[in-house]
Amino acid sequence: xxxxxxxxxxxxxxxxxxxxxxxxxxxxxxxxxxxxxxxxxxxxxxxxxxxxxxxxxxxxxxxxxxxxxxxxxxxxxxxxxxxxxxxxxxxxxxxxxxxxxxxxxxxxxxxxxxxxxxxxxxxxxxxxxxxxxxxxxxxxxxxxxxxxxxxxxxxxxxxxxxxxxxxxxxxxxxxxxxxxxxxxxxxxxxxxxxxxxxxxxxxxxxxxxxxxxxxxxxxxxxxxxxxxxxxxxxxxxxxxxxxxxxxxxxxx
Length: 252
Ligand code: ADP
Description:
alpha/beta; Nucleotidyltransferase, domain 5
């Protein structure tokens, strides 16, 4: 039996196929149709695996309701928890920052979800916020971390995406270096997310997931704000898809 996990996010759709020891993954932009994105993920995974019969599919992410081809649709909270426990078994706190939402999940010793908080009301502190601000700085979002100058951190007071964009333009006009602005942005996201973590109590073992975890600057700022190390794996953006694939495996 082949297990497939699809995580159709607001910006990026991720898929993982597990076939015994073999594992394949794919990421594509979600685009305007979450249903089409899910179909494309499955086609691409099937192609990589050289065809696949007897498949179980679990779908998660914001697009999970639009995709009808799965055996089961499961919340992101459950899939992230399952994926993180497989990768970092000691984890008691998950911080997930995606394209348009951020969430914190607390796990018990058995890796079960005991509580969570979610911010999906505004783009502040999410991938979208970073994309808009990177654009205002003329830098690719992937290059933000490499371009920061932590020795000269600028103070950024706006967390609202629209206000932050104009604040950045104002700072640039007054001669503040881009590296300082980026360090300030990372700090402001770190502070905001750390405040969310504190609402549930800061655990001992913190895992950071979602595409924004690829940004080392945010990771550093979050770790400094929480006063604890923050673990990031190569799978950070695929954690939900991995959890979904493992749940698909359980369907047998
Ligand atoms: P969603 O599931 O909501 O679509 P993801 O968890 O896939 O979101 O994260 C998407 C976000 O990850 C993007 O908005 C972007 O800010 C960030 N991101 C993706 N790749 C990178 C990278 N290489 N470096 C820094 N940030 C990245």
